Amino acid sequence: MVSVLAKLALIFVIVQLIGIFVGTTLIGEIASGELEQPTIATENPDDPINAIALIAGILLFTGFFLVFMAFFKGSGMFRVLEVFVLFTASLLVFGSFVPQIAFLLAVELIALRLLFNENVFIRNISAIISVAGVGALIGVSLGVIPVLVFLILLSVYDFIAVFKTKHMVALAKGISGRNLAFTVAIPTKEHQFELGTGDLVMPLVFAVSVMKADQALGFPEYIVPAALILVASLAGLLLTIAWVEKHIGKALPALPPQTALMILAWLASKLIGF
Fold first, then answer.
1. Number of C-alpha atoms within 13 angstroms, CB side, residue 195?
2. pLDDT at 22
3. What is d(CA 147, CA 50) in angstroms, rounded to the nearest whole number?
4. What are the beta bridge partners of residue 184?
5. What is d(CA 12, CA 192) in angstroms, rounded to the nearest whole number?
6. pTM for the whole thing?
7. pLDDT recorded at residue 69
8. Quick count: other Cβ atoms within 10 Å of Cβ 166?
9. Among candidates 217, 194, 196, which has minimal Cα distance to 273?
10. Can you tell me the distance from the alpha carbon of 179 to that of 113, in angstroms, rounded to the nearest whole number?
11. Quick one: average pLDDT of 219-237?
12. How far apart are CA 182 and CA 185, in angstroms?
């Protein structure tokens, strides 16, 4: 169990560090006018309607996945979706580090993913880059209040989907069974642990959104609230995984405890003056 938690913590830290760098780059480009402010549903990032729109999109996306898993046993359609997300996200990530060759690196990553489809390491790298890019982009697209609304609504949905309708469990099994980079795989002697990328992307969304709101504080002060949020999120995630490892075969959503701890960390940062 210690090995699983250590690997999970390492993956979490890598994702967040990459995502924070990408988010910082996007924030700077928006502030300088080099990049137009990304939007979700309305032109105002602080409009809570954006959170509602994201939840609606997730519900539609989940329904799409469940229908296709029920009627199409192959993974062709899912592979197309995976490639699209990976290409878009990797352009953002590589563009933040090495913009001159970002397109080439994105194409190479997709080629590796398709050629070595069963390779867990390449699959995890693809998932990490996808989460870093998507999380940073959503983070700069939303104000803090819409993110809080989004987190709370998504946590409620996660709880219902795991314990009530149980369709999230079926969805997770379907995704892992098709070897898609929408989960991170951590093989153990007993079984292969699968972590949904949502538990990695939401902390990044919150942290980047808070960084964008606090950028007037200057460096390094504006990093502190985001760092506290990420530490709290990791604590919630590790506690959840530790429980799951002791109860093999049972599902427990990580996002609700992550959300509670992240909000407390954010409020604490405000109380101490950030």
1. 29
2. 97
3. 9
4. 195
5. 17
6. 0.92
7. 72
8. 12
9. 217
10. 11
11. 91
12. 10
Rounded (10°) CA dihedral 223, 227, 228, 233: 150
Phi/psi for 193 (5° steps) reads -75, 135
Nearest to 21 by CA among 100, 106, 93, 105: 93
Q: Encode pLDDT of 175-212 as tens digits.
A: 766 778 888 888 877 777 778 888 899 999 999 999 99
The C-alpha atoms of residue 213 and residue 209 are separated, in whole angstroms, by: 6
CA–CA distance, 260 with 247 (Å, rounded to integer)? 22
Paired tokens of 196: 């949904």
Domain-by-domain residue ranges, the chain? 2-271
Nearest in space to 54 (alpha carbons), one of 246, 209, 172: 209
Residue with tokens 């995890």: 124
**What's the burial of 33, exposed, middle or buried (CB within 10 Å: 0-12/13-18/19+)?**
exposed
C-beta atoms surrounding 219 within 10 Å: 8
* Region of 142 on the Ramachandran plot (φ > 0 left; ψ -120 to 50 alpha; else beta): beta
Q: How confident is the model at residue 241 (pLDDT cuts 50, 70, 90)?
A: confident
Reading the block at residue 157, the tokens are 């949905």
Write the CA distances from 171 to 22, 65, 66, 161, integer angstroms: 29, 7, 7, 10
Helix (H) or strand (E) holding 31: helix 2-32
